[in-house]
Amino acid sequence: MEAHHIRISVSGTPAGAASARQRIAEEIRGWSAALGAELLEAAEVVASELITNAVRHAHEGPISADADLNDKALRIAVTDTSSDVPEVGLPDADAEDGRGLFLVAALADRHGYDPLPSGKRCWAEFDSSTPSGLATTHLPQQRS
User: 100-104: which pairs have CB atoms within 8 A and are 24 or more residues apart?
Assistant: First the structure.
């Protein structure tokens, strides 16, 4: 598999976040159909959540979004200038937001953040070496 990389600047506005989400999704979809539809859809959701969180919580300074694909993994990372530590949690059922990192944790094979001298990098990885795309599904199954 050929290695790919994209890095884009994200303006700190909802319109900027929407544009960045769309660009990252289009780029990843163009890299390889061999990733599988399920992995591509999960990667789009994860990229969307990471970008949205950065725009929502990093109140000033530059934001960038990266995606890298190699033989082993698809990695999505968003860097911002906020030093706030992201926390995965399940919000109240009535809450209209707060599910982003829960979704990232549920969909990605690995996720985390790296503190940086001027902020942090939040990232998520998907194994790209499995033929079906996603190695496992992490979301709880609904019972009927």
Answer: 100/49, 100/50, 100/52, 100/53, 101/49, 101/53, 103/45, 103/46, 103/49, 104/46, 104/49, 104/50
Tens of pLDDT, residue by residue over 13-51, are 889 999 999 999 999 988 866 788 899 999 999 999 999
C-alpha span between 5 and 135 (Å, rounded): 22
In this prediction, residue 85 has a pLDDT band, given cuts at 50, 70 and 90, of confident
What HEC string does 65-88 produce? EEEEECCCEEEEEEEECCCCCCCC
Token pair 């949205």 in the structure block, residue: 52
Helix (H, G, I), strand (E, B) or coil at 133: coil
Transcribe 1-25 into DSSP letters.
---EEEEEEE-SSHHHHHHHHHHHH
Q: Which residue has the tokens 């929407």?
A: 18
- How many residues are listed for the chain in this entry? 144
pTM of the model: 0.83
Torsion, CA 118, CA 20, CA 129, CA 41, rounded to 10: 130
